[in-house]
Amino acid sequence: MASSKAKTLVIYTGGTFGMKDDGAGLKPVDRFKVSDEFSRIVPLSDMKKPEEIKSRKEIMRRFTTRKQDWNGTVDESPITYDVYEFKRLIDSSLMNQDDWKSIAETIQKYYEDYDGFVVVMGTDTMAYASSALSFMLENLSKPVVFTGAQITIFDAMSDGPENLLCSLIVSTLDIPEVLLCFNKKAFRGNRVVKTDCVGLDAYTSSNMPLLVTLDTRVTLDTRVTQTESLEKQIGTLQVQEMYPEGNEVGLLVIYPGITTEQVKNTIKDLQAVVLLTFGSGNIDGKIVQAMVDEQNNRKRLYINVTQCLKGSVTSSYQASNALKELGAVNCSDITTEAAFTKLSYVLAKEQDFEERKKMMRTSRRGEMSDEDSERENRNSENNQGLSQN
Question: By residue range, what is the domain housing residue 198?
């Protein structure tokens, strides 16, 4: 489950975790080792670049004495770690594709020196970042764990120390993918949605079980991590950039009363659109016709995603049939965050339009249920063929 002495790199980017109120609101403090009091809770390394650190400190052993998988295998080992702080600490609501790239490239730079990575950032866009990194980090063979806090560590009620401790533990487990760890739970990074901006149980993964639970013992659900279909990744870690600034990738939320002009104005400059439709993928036919009219002989990639937190898009209802004329790709039970970041990844990686559609309808990092997606898109393609004959 873990090496006898796992080494983890903590990458601190900012966020509520280390913020202080300067009178105008919370903002990041410029040192991760933010107080002597916190350092006693979690004995962090000196703030230096990893290659400059000569000695590492052990996390408290009592947090790592019961790591167990569902098969009953138990492991006990200390965790050593270093901390790397970004020069520009920011609120996650200000993050963009360039920041995701910086995180990915930092992991790539120190990849051979560590067994796992923990990324500390703000919670507002963490689900976007963890989804993005799941696609950007190609050939990933080590755990990358995102975490943060709802309450700053300068507050006695802070959830930051516990989230960091749990994430450090998860970073030692044999899960070669991107995760998000919060409130003693670890999820697949591209399967989560932030559902609470106040409570400590901030994230939900409605369509996939937890990968790890951290309670009286740390339990890795190998039934999920070993049997879930993931694209096989072999080779040297590579960072695939996202489509620049997402300036031609956008979201279109379908809501009652939306007009055709509003639709046209939203999509006119976009090359690819994530459609957030009603229920299991339903939409008014006149809205779809507006999108067809706006094509202007250009190919625009449409991705159909449900607005619901649980369940997937299907072609069961007549109200979803109009999307077939668009050639929209049904993306099963994918989250909005994963759909947007995957689309940005696919546009950057592949130029051929049909190949882009193929990549979007196929699960690459366990971001959606493949079986449902393949069946729905197969039905869509067959129906399109019948309508053309």
Answer: 6-239
Sign of dihedral through CA atoms 186, 190, 195, 199?
A: positive
**Mean pLDDT in residue range 92-99:** 93
**Tens digits of residue pLDDT in 216-244:** 778 887 666 654 545 556 779 999 998 76
- The residue among 198, 220, 239 that closes a domain is 239
Q: Which residues contact 168 (CB under 8 A, 6 or more apart)?
A: 8, 10, 59, 63, 79, 81, 118
Please tell me the distance from the alpha carbon of residue 10 to that of residue 252, in angstroms, as a whole number.
Answer: 36
User: Does residue 198 have a pLDDT over 60?
Assistant: yes
Hey, is 225 helix, strand or coil?
Answer: helix
Picking from 249, 253, 182, 244, the residue whose alpha carbon sits closest to that of residue 211 is 182
Is residue 17 a part of any domain in this protein? yes
| C-alpha to C-alpha distance for 26 and 22, rounded to whole angstroms | 7
| Residue 1: inside a domain | no
Catalytic option among 8, 13, 16, 123: 16
Long-range contacts of 103-106 (CB under 8 A, 24+ apart): 103/11, 103/13, 103/129, 103/133, 104/133, 104/136, 104/137, 104/239, 105/239, 106/11
**Residue 283 and residue 209 share a domain:** no
Q: Which two tokens stand for residue 275?
A: 């459609």
Domain count, the chain: 2
At 85 the pLDDT is 84
pLDDT one-digit tens code per residue, 148-183: 999 988 888 989 988 998 898 899 888 999 999 999
Pair 216, 66: CB distance under 8 Å = yes
Question: Is 213 labeled as catalytic in the residue annotation?
Answer: no
At 117, which amino acid appears? F
* Token pair 């489509």: residue: 243
